[in-house]
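To: structure desk
From: M.T.
Subject: fold request, one chain
Message: Could you run this one when you get a chance? Sequence is below, nothing fancy, just the single chain.
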Amino acid sequence: MFRILLPLVLAVCLALPAQAQQALPDVLAEFGDQIAKPSRQTIGPVIDAIVDTGDPAAAALLQAWGDRVLGQRKTDGAFFVIAKDGDGWALTALDGSAAGTAAKADITELKPNAGVRELIAAALVQFTLSDPDPARRAQALESIARNPDAAHLEPVRESIAVETDPVLKSRKERLARILALRFGETPAERIEAIESFHGDIALDTRGALNPLLATSRRVATEIPAGTNIARRLTPGTDLTEAEAYDMLVTAGLAPARLTPEALKTALAANIVDGAVAGIPVAELNDQTRREAAFEALEASGAVPAAATDAEAEAAVAAHLFWDQYAEADSSVTDAARAALGSIETKVGLMTAADLGLDAISLASIYFLAAIGLAITFGVMGVINMAHGEFIMMGAYTGYVVQLFVPDYTLSIVIALPLAFAVTFAAGVAMERLVIRHLYKRPLETLLATFGISIALQQLFKNIFGTQARPLTAPAWLDGQLAFNDIIAISYIRVAIFVLALLFLGFFLWLMKRTRLGLETRAVTQNPAMAASMGIDPDRVAMMTFGLGSGIAGIAGVAIGLFAKVTSELGSDYIVQSFMTVVVGGVGNIWGTLAGAALIGGLQKVIEWLNPSNTLAAQTYMILFIILFIQFRPRGIIALKGRAAGD
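Reply: Done. Structure tokens follow.
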């Protein structure tokens, strides 16, 4: 390893300003004993002297020493990199040349403890930061960021000037500012670094600023001059009287509080001739007399010191309590507080944006799940309780396709139209065999479709079992689209959002530009008039029901990419689908879109307000929907025509 370090050490030495330097052999001769038996408390100046020599062999020495492969020859005190060679050692000089072998007894192994190795690692940072390999430089930056130290500041700053990689240079400049805000030599330097992070919401920024505002609670009879106070504390308001007195006891400023049990035991043990400390036992029914007796015993040394309630109250009143910053300089804490304030404001805005993004994502899912229901409900007035099972059917179609097509991208491309075809056919069959015989009979239709829903769930449970089946997304949908440390959304959710937009466009094209759309709109507005114009309402109803079911199948493929594919998949979305349709406006695509946005946004807000209880979020949302319908029973965008009349 030390051979790799030699070129970079030369580069570092050339970059350093010319100055009088002590030669490495002289340093080793002067501090040889301390190197052989190092102590964390005293070895720091020795390591600095080794680094300051600028000798190319200094990095090799430090690296071998830290790796515990450095040995010292007993005869002349020379240092070598050692490796086991039979019963002895193979020696390598610090310049990388072979130096023969030596008997095991002739070499002293140098094994520094963990504390000394930390100092050695810190000294090696300046060499690693200028390593020719960008990966090693990046690794050094990560290592410093994990365990920052004051000794790292100058090496990081010095390495910036010779950094050729623009990305690494930017990281070094940022790391230098983070180190400066903690370890800068002057308050002005630290404040300048702190102010440079105003509005920076990165986690490492908050991780560096928060320790500057760390506080500890203190108590004394008076506050020392120059104390950086975070806030004064008032017993009874900011902390209880008991907590205040406990602080006095912990600080050794007061004895432990006298408990009723301890008082009773002390008095009983000191009864002499029917009295305690001269107070008759008959008078000890009074709390004041009991405390007076205890104080007399305490004064005589008969019992250990303890504070009565009155003494504790007096002690608390005689002391001051405050929160004190660990950082002594108030100007630094003021700057840190201002920077964190600006960051928290921005974090709040970013959190709101992230919540909005989650709401849009959830609304896209609900829109896909509900759009088919909106079509069938709006045109036919049929409450299809089996709509969720068409979603489930589409998800299982995608799973089956992946069993035969291992390419996940190709399998999804095949599954989408195939799921549409399968569920379209199932919807048409259901409409022809059941629904068409129950028109104008909503209760019977609801019960019949509910029965079909249960039957389909059991059928798929018998075919695929109760265990969740995987519907794997392509690799290019893995991960998430991250805008910063707060705002991020998975690529699967982005794909579902795009799919929802495509379906919105497809539906608008279908309804506005095709014959089926024209006939569907005509039947929706006035079925009798449409029939008189040569349109077959029965055929339109069949095609519409099939279309709504097919769209549900495609939604099932999309939902299955991130949800568990089981026979109960559809039941997880049927309630939200109905709420979306009813709130938006039955049979209106724009109403469905508005309803999905309202339901998705409302659910995310409630979950954010009450993140630990998702069941409560569902309950509150349903209550809101009930209240909403009371004031707007036809939904956000009411439909005109037959559905409106119904």
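Reply (cont.): Residues 215-325 form one domain. Let me know if you need anything else for the meeting.
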